[in-house]
């Protein structure tokens, strides 16, 4: 009986959603699923095409980034996942993709402005873009530092990781998370669609204003507030 | 024998068209189907994925927005549907989506200008964008007010809901309607395509003029006028 | 034995290619196939969805636009087809779509500039956009006049319909033709792709020059010239 | 026993990937696969639709562009392939497509700037756009000259063909290569996606800077350097 079977299966299923949702080309993405009791997560092996994946091929890693089980090399972004799991107690899944529109905003090093209710249904802030790291951090333990860069991007703007479940890493691409791997995958599709809509909105009206506060609050609270009643 | 069977089936079938037409991500949309004799409509339950829908899961609601039958919660946009059914006697179906291009125009708070015959085949005006509501309306009975905001957008410009079967709600997304749920779904695909074409047209030629009146009239009348002969 | 069977079948098969190639939404398109010996063409019936088509439903029309056989109403664009068949002796098929990018250029009332070899592989000119008609022509025999407008667009620029097999009708959408219905359908996919590439090219470099003459000539001639050797 | 069977099969399989990856319309592309021991390559026959291809239809050509075996005419771009195989000893496959976004950059005659890590995961330079040839070269042995134009584009900027496996031919479209035909096909999908992201990045932020050197180096080296550990 494999005590990691649940998270291997969950990570496998969640990884397989990425190509179905059109969020990855080749192997440009990875999902992990955590077991908080055991202090580990299952993550996609490095460079393996989605069509060759199976639950058994998932690699088990602890929250310090040390491989616990698995014959394949874990995703090269593993340390970023480990840092986030270690510091954010209430997340159970993390996704990284290079989805086209979200990556374009990351390359532009811009936060995604909150322009409509599709965005406000999910959070109340511009989606933050973590600034690129300095040369020293990049040349050092890069993937580890990426985790801290993500955390700083939220903290410096007073955002909770439980509300803002998505971020852009400047010059790189989006990371998303959630209570479960499924929710993290959902968020990776949401950030891509919100990024696409915001791009189009600025093309249609370059001087467009951000969403008014009352509308941000209304849409967020009807889905996530105490008396939430959302769901379409 | 279920007296609501017909509209449950119609609402189910129409809802299932939205993902097929590429108009929704996850559950970002809903369709309702009305029975005018019984004074009710069937609408998608809140937050249920399209792949889990069935006719039995549709919720029956009256034109004041009160649930008449069904164990699931109706779409959070239900009151907007109710207002429109109550005031517009000749509509039998309503659709709400967050389709990408139409939503981008809504976020830009712009009417979609009539630039070509694809638009004029369906109506003779710029597709109106209802302005965002004031804070008081938003904090009050929001979805109910959205219905009136839609009605005002047409009335203030002298448009009939029988000709103009589509609207953008500013900062939010499109609503469409029609004599049947099928027609309302058709209209939701049309507004998305017209929105996409208008966006591209302005990119290709920023100073592009609106369509000349004679051409608007010709195309609309050959499809909808007394001696209509349209259909490709 | 039905003497029109061949063109009914050809028109049916060609019409069914349009949704497969992503060139039409709903019924926004039509293809016809001509029999020069019999002086007639088969054309899609008006307003019938592609999934309900069959060879038997095609309508037979002569080159003056008079229906010869068929219980359904022919496409509302039938007279445009008739004019072109009557005046251009060497064409055997005509296609009309509202494909997205080509229609956007038509709405912008701009010729599509020749920016690359993908364009020059098919013809040596900017793809002409026929100017919108005056009010009198529009209010008169509109679809008939559309045919002459197309012919004038080529003639006024010294183009042969045997080289330039595609045109934009200003404010409306593209028409294409060819020796066979298959070639006409091929051309409708080509004009859409060339329109998309030209749009992107101008976005990437607003002041981009047209293709140099020697390269236009080289690519066109290697595919269509006396010593043609093209085909990838 | 056919000594060319392996490369025929490899070229066939690689050609069939192009429509699956959405990189070609109709026959607008071709792949070749080389056997270095025999000094030949197998290439797609000219003008044959992908659905009609089979390994047996591949044409065998030597590195001077002379057909060695095969009843069909080889791709019109065959001499370009031959030049590259002759001069670049370590490549085993070449791909040419007219994929939409990469072709738009080629038509704009611009190098694709390195804006993000998706690009740096594959190489460390802007993807070069070879300038259009002069009239004499075009009117001469055009496809042969295209090969030299590609080689010059890399050499003039100090790039190795073993690092930079992709190029735009100005006014024309992309060529890619690699140690195997599979890798060359992979590169043709990468250049299309990188081209699309770079286009969107400039739309979102017109004055966007190139990627900083340390990040270029980090991402390239973690995948391709001595201590590479990449793979997602």
TrEMBL record, chains A, B, C, D:
Top-rank lineage group of the source organism: Bacteria
Domain Class II aldolase/adducin N-terminal residue range list: 9-199
A GO-annotated cellular component: cytosol
Any GO molecular function: aldehyde-lyase activity
Cofactors, names only: Zn(2+)
EC number: 5.1.3.4
Name recorded for this polypeptide: L-ribulose-5-phosphate 4-epimerase
Phylogenetic classification of the source organism: Bacteria, Pseudomonadati, Bacteroidota, Cytophagia, Cytophagales
């Amino acid at each position: 009986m494999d005590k990691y079977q649940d998270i291997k299966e969950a990570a496998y299923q969640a990884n397989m959603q990425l190509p179905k949702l059109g969020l990855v080309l080749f192997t440009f993405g990875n999902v992990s699923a955590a077991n908080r009791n055991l202090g580990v997560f299952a993550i996609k092996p490095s460079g393996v095409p989605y069509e060759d994946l199976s639950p058994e091929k998932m690699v088990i890693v602890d929250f310090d980034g040390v491989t616990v089980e698995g014959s394949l090399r874990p995703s090269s972004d593993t340390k970023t996942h480990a840092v986030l799991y270690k510091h954010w107690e209430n997340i159970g899944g993390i996704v990284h993709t290079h989805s086209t529109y979200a990556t374009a905003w990351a390359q532009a090093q811009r936060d995604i402005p909150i322009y409509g209710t599709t965005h406000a249904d999910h959070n109340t802030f511009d989606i933050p873009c973590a600034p690129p790291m300095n040369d020293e951090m990049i040349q050092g333990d890069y993937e580890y530092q990426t985790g801290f860069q993500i955390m700083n991007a939220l903290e410096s703007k007073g955002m909770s990781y439980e509300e803002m479940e998505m971020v852009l890493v400047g010059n790189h691409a989006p990371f998303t998370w959630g209570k479960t791997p499924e929710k993290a995958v959902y968020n990776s599709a949401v950030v891509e669609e919100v990024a696409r809509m915001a791009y189009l909105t600025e093309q249609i009206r370059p001087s467009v204003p951000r969403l008014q506060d009352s509308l941000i609050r209304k849409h967020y609270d009807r889905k996530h507030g105490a008396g939430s009643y959302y769901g379409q």
